[in-house]
From TrEMBL:
Annotated signal peptide: none
Species name: Aeromicrobium endophyticum
GO molecular function terms listed in the Swiss-Prot or TrEMBL record: acid-thiol ligase activity
Residue ranges of coiled coil: none
Name the record gives this protein: Fatty acid--CoA ligase
Keywords, sorted A to Z: Ligase
Similarity annotation: Belongs to the ATP-dependent AMP-binding enzyme family.
Keyword Protein transport on entry: no
Length: 527
């Protein structure tokens, strides 16, 4: 087991972050790039107006407000408004289907929602609550029953309601796909966010001079968490509405980014593209990567291309994004290299390896389940006591579902997934959810979804299908079938038809046997 000291907390509420910086850095840009540029002073005053509007609309302390849109400055107005009004923000994945969005809205039960105009059709007609719509391309299209966000916000009194909470009060819920096919609301407390701001900001030297490039969507803890760290420090974030390698390169160079958050698939594009590899990266101080498997070649290629410090992070939404990290000084080649590890525990968190069946701590070098506890770890899944109970061992140890071992120096080496979670291009995909969708196909008798290696995405879903007697399964047709029911990134990229799934004596499908031929020669199958 490894543990390190907890950094001293410097704030008591999330609303304090924007109140303080709104006064201290009033004319300093907080958000630049795509979307609306805003200063700290403007962000503070706008969040006052939105907070007072939420209170006037009848939202009480602990109520939820949802956000369904691409990255936009409006998200941070709503985030800090929620903090000032004492309500919980629920960022939704805009890539989900209408059925998936509808289920989450039913579970989270928000009282208000802010939606980008081209996504309003994803909100069920029967949903009842305050409906606000905005556009990033001019005046929004406002359907019946909706209100234009700009006009609504402008009509509010603009007084900070100061209903903000601290400590164990909920601040955010992010929905993660569930092992049983339904998403789970991962709760993050105010204290958890504030701890992360202090701990991670110190690790990566984030300051008012920092310019952070955050290309992933805010519904990911990596983007939402890192952006909060940058904003809390008084730095600026470079925002992306749509991410392409070309515009990412342009924003990085144009805004002279000091901190860059990337998934390995994007890093690979940067080190292999002639245009990108020849760009001026002299401003870059730190590149933080994670989210999917990465090769040693890409690690070292990125180090050479950027000429900056390189850190790898491993974590989950349940741990505010980071559990362990591999420090810049660990990025060296040699007989004792730690490059194949996921690093050591973040200061303030405890990390250990437990036997997944007994909960006993494993010996050094013995493979078991990675577990963690500390101030950044979630305390519960929203309204899901069964999932919450299953996720923790006695003593408050959270079960990550990932298998690995720890060496004598406290470095964690990941080996496999106990929960079968796939990570494709930084997106979490649970096979059970995909399997449930495929089983609705009339020609499918059985299916097992596994992750197979992808040079671009790290891994992608493969559906191994057993057809019903007398039926045939066409791979392309089955993929199209799942695309009608799931977000496209969750759908299989290939289909393999077999006569029988391998099983153990108790009847459990042996997915390890299905994965083995695809992962031969890959010594690290998870990120």
């Amino acid at each position: 087991m490894t543990t390190t000291p907890v950094p001293a907390a410097t704030r008591t509420t999330l609303a304090d972050v924007i109140r303080t910086n709104g006064a201290d850095f009033a004319d300093v840009p907080a958000i630049v790039g795509e979307g609306r540029t805003t200063t700290y002073g403007e962000l503070s005053s706008r969040s006052d107006a939105v907070a007072s509007g939420l209170v006037a609309a009848g939202l009480g302390v602990g109520d939820r407000v949802a956000y369904l849109a691409r990255n936009a400055t409006e998200y941070w107005e709503l985030f800090f408004a929620a903090a000032k009004a004492g309500v919980v923000i629920v960022p939704l994945n805009f890539r989900l289907s209408a059925e998936e969005i509808g289920w989450i809205l039913g579970d989270a039960d928000p009282s208000a929602i802010l939606v980008e105009d081209h996504l309003t059709s994803l909100v069920p007609a029967e949903w009842r609550g305050l409906r606000l719509v905005f556009s990033q391309e001019g005046d929004p299209s406002v359907p019946a029953g909706w209100q234009a966000y700009e006009q609504w916000a402008a009509s509010q009194p603009g007084d900070d309601p100061r209903r903000d909470l601290g400590g164990d009060a909920l601040a955010s819920m992010m929905y993660s796909s569930g092992t049983t096919g339904r998403p789970k609301g991962v709760t993050t407390t105010v204290g958890g966010f504030l701890w992360a701001v202090d701990a991670f900001g110190a690790l990566f030297d984030v300051s008012p001079a920092s310019v952070s490039l955050v290309p992933t969507p805010y519904y990911h803890i990596a983007a939402g968490g890192w952006s909060l760290i940058a904003l809390a420090a008084g730095g600026r974030i470079v925002q992306f509405t749509e991410v392409t390698p070309q515009n990412m390169l342009g924003q990085l160079v144009g805004f002279k980014a000091t901190h860059v958050i990337m998934v390995p698939t994007v890093m690979q594009l940067f080190i292999t593209s002639p245009e990108a590899s020849a760009a001026d990266y002299s401003s870059v101080e730190h590149v933080v990567y994670g989210g999917s498997p990465i090769s040693e070649t890409v690690m070292l290629g990125a180090q050479k291309t950027f000429g900056a410090q390189l850190s790898q992070s491993y974590g989950l939404t349940e741990t505010v994004g980071v559990t362990t990290f591999l420090r810049p000084e660990d990025h060296v080649v040699g007989p004792d290299s730690k490059l194949r590890s996921a690093g050591r525990a973040v200061p303030g968190l405890e990390v250990a390896i437990f036997d997944p069946d007994t909960g006993a701590e494993c010996a050094t070098g013995e493979v078991g389940e990675v577990v963690t506890r500390g101030p950044g770890v979630t305390t519960a899944y929203w309204r899901n006591p069964e999932a919450t109970a299953a996720a923790f061992w006695p003593g408050g140890w959270f079960r990550t579902g990932d298998a690995g071992y720890m060496d004598a120096e406290g470095y964690v080496f990941l080996k496999d997934r106990i929960k079968d979670l796939l990570m494709s291009g930084g997106e979490n995909i649970y096979p059970a959810e995909v399997e449930n969708a495929i089983m609705a196909h009339p020609a499918v008798q059985e299916v097992a979804v596994i992750g197979v290696p992808s040079e671009r995405w790290g891994e992608t879903p493969l559906a191994v299908v057993v057809p019903k007697a007398g039926q045939t399964v066409d791979g392309d047709e089955l993929i199209a079938f799942t695309r009608e029911r799931l977000a496209h990134y969750k759908c299989p990229t290939a289909v393999q038809v077999i006569h029988q799934l391998p099983r153990n004596p108790s009847g459990k499908v042996l997915k390890r046997e299905l994965r083995a031929p695809h992962w031969a020669g890959h010594d690290r199958s998870i990120g």
